[in-house]
Design brief:
By secondary structure, the protein is mainly alpha-helical. The protein contains nine helices and no strands.
Length: 202
């Protein structure tokens, strides 16, 4: 691996840094965006049952908000359960926008890495081409410099694509996952409003 880095020249170092950041972000998002952690099954039913048993208590709301992103949305609704249906929905929507922003954390950075990695690889290619042209002299070409220029050009191009492809795949996957979570939380929050305002049975 070290020999490849040496052959690729100094333009490979920004790409290596981008690859480390991308891997770290992918692992972090894979852990953070697990369904059981974002939208725990049965949480709405447990919240409604606890509300009907003890009413809106600080412990109930605190436990919900500490449980998961869905719990934060439901907790916002329960805080305003005594208000009108419209105010309760507004509170849920405000909490939902904050939760949605939190779920999208680091995705912009991952998308940026996916976009600029090929450009960084192209920059390395240009540096390699400059070295190739620099190896040409009136007395003949320098084979060592020529070979190094070709290595710089090819390794940087390949490494840029190697970073960009999985980064783009995971970025699109995480965006779709967040969208599905947001829609699911919206549906559960609407159900909470309807249940607590007597428009629907739990």
């Amino acid at each position: 691996m070290f020999s490849i880095v040496q052959a690729a020249g100094w333009p490979i170092w920004p790409l290596l840094l981008a690859s480390i950041i991308a891997v770290a972000l992918i692992i972090e998002r894979l852990v953070a965006l697990r369904r059981a952690k974002v939208v725990p099954p049965g949480l709405l039913q447990r919240a409604v049952a606890e509300y009907r048993k003890n009413g809106t208590t600080p412990d109930l709301i605190a436990n919900l908000e500490a449980d998961s992103p869905l719990g934060r949305v439901l907790g916002a609704g329960l805080r305003n359960v005594a208000a009108s249906r419209e105010i309760m929905k507004e509170a849920i929507e405000e909490a939902g926008s904050v939760v949605s922003h939190d779920l999208e954390r680091y995705l912009t950075t991952l998308g940026t890495i996916a976009s600029i990695s090929p450009l960084m690889g192209l920059f390395g290619t240009v540096v390699g081409m400059i070295e190739i042209f620099g190896s040409q002299a009136p007395s003949g070409s320098n084979p060592i410099q020529l070979a190094h220029g070709i290595s710089v050009a090819l390794y940087n191009t390949g490494f840029g694509l190697l970073i960009a492809i999985p980064s783009m795949i995971f970025w699109r996957h995480f965006r779709a996952l967040v969208d599905s979570f947001v829609i699911e939380m919206q549906q559960l929050a609407v159900r909470l409003v309807e249940v607590l305002h007597g428009e629907r049975k739990s």
